[in-house]
Design a protein that fits this description.
heterotrimer, A alpha/beta, B alpha/beta, C alpha/beta, A: alpha/beta, 29% helix, C: alpha/beta, four-stranded mixed β-sheet, 6 helices
């Protein structure tokens, strides 16, 4: 049986691990205690503002990426600032198994298709940042600051049609909140989602994960809480979920 | 990232959640200016009104003061009882390693006519958690933070006491991210969980620790707190907060003893005295963010005009980041670590943004100016 | 020395790191000399089928591979797309011809309750015992990430070792003399993956 996945998502600013709140980095942390074994996958996002792949300052990100990927024996998905095919190639050559794209897809949805054609659908994860405005779930860009014209359900349909492999869904208001995932948002897309879905933002206690998996179309739960990244936390979480009879890799 | 420090109070931008908006003045200093604009007599009347409403007519406990016996919480307790005529119950979550001067100060204060619930959590559990959090987060007091957050509210729920008076709102007083506009008046549980504890204590179940062990640290259900109408206030909202004034106040009214010597890592001997593990907590702050206790203490005093900036800078250069020699063996024993293990953990928390290694020693990449 | 074939597709570095954890030295190369002198080969793969075949042709690797694998019976492990390329053809991007070493086709996954791509940790059923899967944990949990797979076996020399345990099974692991094909990613499957690599390159055939 395909297991539900627990994913830790690291947000790096200039190569330093930061915790974020509403997408604003606010607390720096060491990456020396990140569990590489009990967790099912790791996602690493470069959230350095306005940093392109050719920029010399990107080296800080690559240095940390190298340190982490050397020891990892679970799938690694990397993103942040990808604009072109070459950027994907660079990441795959630096330890990434899959890549995450966001803004580039919003600017030009056809790029999803072109990236997937070259590197395989299973390599391309599209990340979507959402905020609720006037009772509508709206897709945002630019690190959660700029509103797009896309409603969430419509954008998901486009992303799926263009051939993405997975969707990584974040809720801007819930980012860093510890009060639970945005279950309303997840419920909202239940009829349109047909790709493997990773939900992030808001993971606090282990019951929140249990509640998220009650939506059986959710394939993976991501946490950006740095305190969940340690081996003790991941083991504790998985043991809890196992007692709730969820299909989890322990 | 360019490391800068506040033109007024010295605080560097490495401090978590501090905000600098283009000019080199931190949000704590800006807040302090705002404090001058506050209508303090109005706020005092607000407190009077709250007290009048909830004061027990039968002299039963009508408010809880989370209390360590230090100058700040004792000031709050004293004023509530003797100035506002309330019947406070003092609630203490035992320091991890209680200091002698702390015990003495608590006894002397209680002798003035207070009741105290002193909660002593299982020490074996406490030491396991302390070791875990020291290792993973470079902070041995995470569970203590959870405890002092939960215990007063747990007791408020049990005894149906509607008022809880914490001392000051750290995020606004000392620089941090304030989640909503009332958080400097009423303690926001989400804010505490996110900023101080960072994680839900229920998650700390492991091979060594079970739910029973975690009872002291788990916050009561929000629905219960709401139903019992319990409100945790910050005293700093009603009275202009100044830790140096608190010190003078408590010295004048009670038998308050300072530490016999200068506390390691700083220049003073009267703030934060009750736990021998505190020097390690502040030392790790230095390791993680490049500033220690001396800077923390100096910045608070400078901000309230009790210390000249230049003098503060001198203290920082002399004492900031000082290794906790005096308490070291006690701390090692408590955490059940060897010296090597200890230093290995410390070094894992140095980020290379602010530290550079030269040979076997580490040097800070920036200087407080 | 194991040679991980560099045809510009695939997470070669992950494979190299995993091999090293399993105790094997490896190099990443597409040089004919290094392919010839290697003891064993790995054909990695993350990407699309026709991109894979195009790259192999573009880098002029097909002849040397056939010489070493079919001629000299050098051991070769195909991972994910690498495994798929060894088949006759794939229906991905319209019908594309593969290397034809295994007389089967690659088709789009069609499993009830399984989304496409099939991504995550999944169990597999033992169809035929084999030393390759010795000491893997009881349910052979491995990490998958694919939309296409080898679903039917028409090649009597190709032995299916593991079938993924969903109704419309597909082949997770199979072997034909010196040719081994694994659909999931052992280099990303932690202990089970490392054990598999140890078994695979530890010195015996199917």
């Amino acid at each position: 049986m395909l297991k539900k996945r627990i994913i830790t998502t690291l947000t790096l600013q200039n190569g330093i691990l930061f915790r974020t709140r509403n997408f604003e980095p606010d607390y720096r942390y060491t990456h020396n205690f990140i569990d590489m074994w009990s967790v099912d996958e790791i996602i690493i996002l470069d959230i350095t503002r306005k940093l392109k792949f050719g920029d010399k300052n990107k080296k800080f990100f690559f240095k940390t990426l190298e340190q982490i990927s050397k020891n990892i024996v679970v799938p690694l998905t990397v993103g942040g600032g990808i604009e072109k095919l070459d950027d994907i190639k660079t990441l795959l050559n630096n330890g990434a198994d899959k890549v995450v794209i966001n803004s580039v897809a919003l600017e030009s949805p056809k790029k999803i298709n072109s990236f997937a054609s070259k590197y395989g659908k299973q390599c391309i994860v599209v990340s979507i940042d959402v905020k609720k405005i006037d009772n509508e779930f709206i897709v945002f860009t630019d690190y959660g600051t700029k509103k797009t014209n896309y409603k969430l359900k419509d954008w998901i349909k486009i992303v799926q049609d263009e051939g993405a492999g997975e969707i990584f869904l974040q809720s801007i208001e819930f980012d860093g909140s510890l009060e639970g995932y945005n279950y309303e948002m997840v419920n909202h897309i239940s009829q349109v989602i047909n790709l493997p879905l990773i939900v992030s933002s808001g993971a606090g206690n282990w019951e929140h994960f249990e509640k998220l998996f009650e939506f059986d179309f959710v394939s993976a739960a991501s946490t950006t809480n740095i305190y969940h990244f340690t081996e003790s936390s991941i083991k504790s979480l998985k043991n809890f979920l196992k007692t709730k009879k969820l299909e989890i890799r322990v | 990232m360019e490391i800068i420090n506040c033109k007024i109070c010295l605080t560097p931008n490495t401090r978590p959640r501090v905000i600098f908006e283009g000019d080199k003045i931190c949000n704590a200093c800006k807040y302090k200016d705002k404090k001058n604009d506050v209508d303090w007599p109005k706020r005092k009347n607000e407190l009077k009104a709250i007290c009048n409403k909830y004061r027990s007519k039968t002299n039963e406990y009508d408010c809880i003061v989370p209390w360590s016996g230090g100058k700040d919480s004792s000031s709050v307790a004293y004023k509530l009882k003797f100035d506002y005529g309330m019947n406070p119950l003092l609630v203490t979550f035992s320091p991890l390693i209680p200091s002698i001067v702390g015990v003495k100060n608590r006894k002397n204060f209680l002798d003035m006519g207070f009741d105290n619930v002193y909660f002593h959590p299982n020490e074996k559990v406490s030491r396991i958690l302390s070791k875990r959090f020291f290792r993973e987060r470079g902070n041995p007091k995470v569970h203590w933070d959870a405890g002092i957050n939960s215990l007063p509210i747990q007791i408020a729920c049990e005894k149906n006491i509607k008022l809880v008076f914490y001392a000051e709102h750290g995020e606004s007083e000392y620089g941090g991210r304030v989640l909503n506009k009332d958080s400097d008046k009423i303690r926001n549980f989400e804010e505490v969980i996110e900023n101080q504890i960072g994680d839900d204590p229920q998650n700390w179940v492991s091979d060594e620790i079970n739910m029973y062990n975690l009872q002291p640290y788990i916050y009561p259900k929000l629905e219960v707190i709401k139903q019992k109408q319990i409100t945790p206030y910050y005293f700093s909202y009603f009275e202009k907060w100044d830790i140096h004034e608190n010190y003078k106040f408590i010295k004048s009214k009670t038998k308050f003893s300072e530490n016999e010597t200068r506390i390691s890592g700083t220049f003073q001997n009267y703030d934060s005295l009750d736990d021998y593990i505190d020097p390690l907590y502040y030392y790790m702050q230095f390791i993680k963010f490049g500033f220690g206790r001396a800077l923390r203490d100096a910045s608070r005093l400078i901000r309230n005009n009790h210390l000249e900036r230049d003098k503060g800078l001198e203290y920082v250069k002399a004492y900031d980041g000082e290794f906790p020699d005096t308490e070291f063996q006690t701390i090692l024993k408590f955490l059940n670590l060897t010296t090597e293990e200890f230093h290995k953990i410390v070094d894992q928390h140095r980020n290379n943004e602010i530290w550079e290694k030269s040979g076997n020693t580490y040097k800070l990449k920036f200087e407080i100016i | 020395m194991i040679c991980i074939i560099d045809y510009e597709l695939g997470n070669k570095l992950s494979i190299k790191n995993a091999l090293s954890k399993a105790g094997f030295e490896s190099l990443i190369s597409n040089s004919k000399d290094e392919i010839k002198s290697a003891d064993s080969l790995i054909l990695p793969g993350v990407g699309s089928f026709n991109e894979g075949m195009d790259n192999l042709k573009k880098l002029d690797l097909i002849d040397i591979l056939e010489e070493e694998v079919l001629g000299n019976k050098k051991k070769i492990l195909g991972i994910c797309l690498g495994f798929q390329l060894m088949a006759n053809e794939s229906s991905e991007n319209g019908n594309t011809k593969g290397l034809g070493w295994i007389n089967n086709s690659i088709e789009l996954l069609k499993v009830k309750d399984l989304k496409i791509p099939h991504v995550g940790w999944n169990n597999s059923k033992v169809i035929n015992k084999s030393k390759f899967i010795e000491q893997l944990n009881a349910d052979n949990l491995l990490y998958y990430n694919h939309s296409y797979a080898m679903r039917i076996n028409n090649d009597e020399k190709f032995k299916i070792i593991l079938g993924c345990e969903h109704e419309d099974s597909f082949i997770s692991l199979g072997a034909k003399e010196n040719i081994i094909g694994i659909q999931p990613h052992p280099e990303k499957s932690q202990l089970n993956g490392i054990k598999f690599l140890k078994n695979c390159f530890g010195g015996f055939n199917a």
